[in-house]
Amino acid sequence: MPRPIHEIESDPSVLSGESREDSVAQEPSPATNGVNAAEAQPDASGPDANASDTHREAAIAKSFRGLGPIFRNRNFLTLWSGQVFSQIADKVYLVLMIAIISSQFEAPGQTISGWVSGIMIAFTIPAVLFGSLAGVYIDRWPKKPVLVLTNLIRGGLVAGLPGLLWLTQDSFTLAGLPIGFWILLIVTFFISTLTQFFAPAEQAALPLIVSQRNLLPANSLYTTTMMASVIVGFAVGEPLLAIADRLLVPLDGGSGVGKCVLVGVSYGVAGLLLLLLRTDETLSDVQEQAHVWQDIREGLAYLGRQAQVRSAVIQLVVLFSVFAALAVLAVRLAEVMPHLKSSQFGFLLAAAGVGMAIGAVSIGQFGQRFSRSVLGLGGSLGMAISLLGLSFFTQQLWPSLLLIGVLGLCAAIVGIPMQTTIQEKTPEEMRGKVFGLQNNVVNIALSLPLAVAGLAEAFLGLRVVFGLLAGLVTAGGLLTWSVANATATPDETAAKTAGTESAGGQ
User: Fold this and answer.
1) 11 CB neighbour count, 10 Å cutoff
2) With pLDDT > 70 as the criterion, what percentage of the chain qualifies?
């Protein structure tokens, strides 16, 4: 039997988490969508009724396409705004640590690498230890308090750093390291630990406030923001910190407090914005005793059973590894270019950010017309071609900028459908476990290339490293495409065919 519009509107699978005003705004008008009064009340029998129902469903589905519906969703805009401030603060925090080390702990003629490696280890250990553990509890805790408190506490820790460093500036050393540096390691460890709870809570909250039909465009902004923060944070971190210091000179006498204030305020703004979030969760929905190791095993077992989710996580790991490596290789790329200095590597990374923005808008607007596996494979091949092109234009500025821009665009085409696949295929009670595991491996994928990309370039050269990254991306795309096609159900195959025919007819 045909489904009346009011049933489709009230179906939680269609409008879960959307506000009433959003659902009204998305409801297609019979007049504007070519559905006449007779079609609105079709006869229950005969081919005309089936055709009417098909037109009706198509009109409603069309109203959910594109970025428009998610920009009318105030809850999504709140979550996304909090994500922007929080993730930029995460990346600028690492730049802040380098600035503090170079001004307070690095001796003349001494390399900074050892100090920075210690910070990176302190930042990575919580991802390894607590990434999966955090996901277990996120399944049982209300998401909003986690999102708010993790940001406010991180902001307080960073804002308090100048005072702690001042108190310990003349203290003794411990294990050959100044007490002030130990404070940096401890604060970094706690900030990274809180991040392990924030990330899966944020990912698990998204399907609660966005309808399933709108998950792809929502992820087009969410995933691109997550990837872009890696690039933008490293590219603009130093200038932003310098501006903050100059602004606070009248208050702190040039002591450099402004750097910490900037990062702390960014976390604080994220927390305050997320106070406005409404997920409509109830305590009875989320409170349950946690069995930590059993739940982690359940998450791993779920990934073992769900090949599409597993391959999507693998492809995201590959994607983030490539961009973490690019953040390091861009410094060397700028150094060998005649028209750039190594300190101007941010221009190269900015090109990737522009490409990501274009890709996000394109996928959000038109991505629902294509299958996830096709988008993943096409984007991966595009990334591979861009990386191979970079290996041949390492000393030419404009071709490199163009290729890096295309790389960013194709990365959005890969990352957004993969994140959407994970959310669509994972039931609500498993999302925290799965997202915790995903956050665990993605953090490792972000950290390891930062440590090894520079060494690989020193021994192998830029051309070889870009070629290896191209091969890695191609393998990830082929894996996801083959798994998606091998495990597709008859209903999914029919949906892909119908979606392709619909796209071709428009």
Assistant:
1) 13
2) 76
User: Residue 247 contacts by C-beta under 8 Å, 6 or more apart in sequence?
Assistant: 258
Residues 203 and 213: their CA atoms lie apart, in Å, by 17
DSSP string, 60-113: HHHHT-SSHHHHT-HHHHHHHHHHHHHHHHHHHHHHHHHHHHHHHTPPTT--SH
- In sign, the C-alpha dihedral spanning 344, 347, 348, 349 is positive
Closest CA to 132 of 299, 287, 291, 312: 299
Kindly tell me if the per-residue pLDDT of 190 is higher than 90.
yes
Contact between residue 367 and residue 375 where contact means Cβ atoms under 8 Å apart: yes
Q: CA torsion, points 289, 433, 134, 191, in degrees to nearest 10?
A: -160
- Cα 214 from chain centroid? 17
pLDDT of 271 reads 95
- Of 443, 152, 135, give the one whose Cα is nearest residue 316: 443
Element (H, E) at 325: helix 307-336
Which tokens hold the place of 269? 């703004």
* Whole-angstrom distance, CA of residue 409 vs CA of residue 178: 44
pLDDT band at 65 (very low <50, low <70, confident <90, very high): low
Contact between residue 259 and residue 121 where contact means Cβ atoms under 8 Å apart: no
Q: Identify the residue whose tokens are 């996830």.
A: 372
CA distance 127 to 320: 15
Structure tokens at 466: 């870009």
Strand partners, 178: 173
| 347's tokens | 């221009």
CA–CA dist 165, 47 (Å, integer): 77
β-partners of residue 177 are 174
First-to-last CA distance in the chain? 27
C-alpha–C-alpha distance, residues 139 and 379, integer Å:
32
Beta bridge partners of 251: none
Crossing angle for the helix pair 257-274 and 143-159, nearest 10 degrees?
A: 170
Mean pLDDT of all residues in the chain? 77
Tell me what pLDDT residue 203 has: 83
CA 344 to chain centre: 25
Q: Residues near 424 by Cβ (< 8 Å), separated by ≥ 6? A: 212, 215
Contact between residue 235 and residue 350 where contact means Cβ atoms under 8 Å apart: yes
- What DSSP character marks residue 3? P
What does the radius of gyration of the chain's CA atoms come to, in whole angstroms?
24
Greater model confidence, 205 or 14: 205
Distance CA 333, CA 399 (A): 12
- Which helix (H) or strand (E) covers residue 174, if one does? strand 173-174
Q: How far is CA 6 from the centre of its chain?
A: 35
In the DSSP assignment, the letter for residue 142 is -
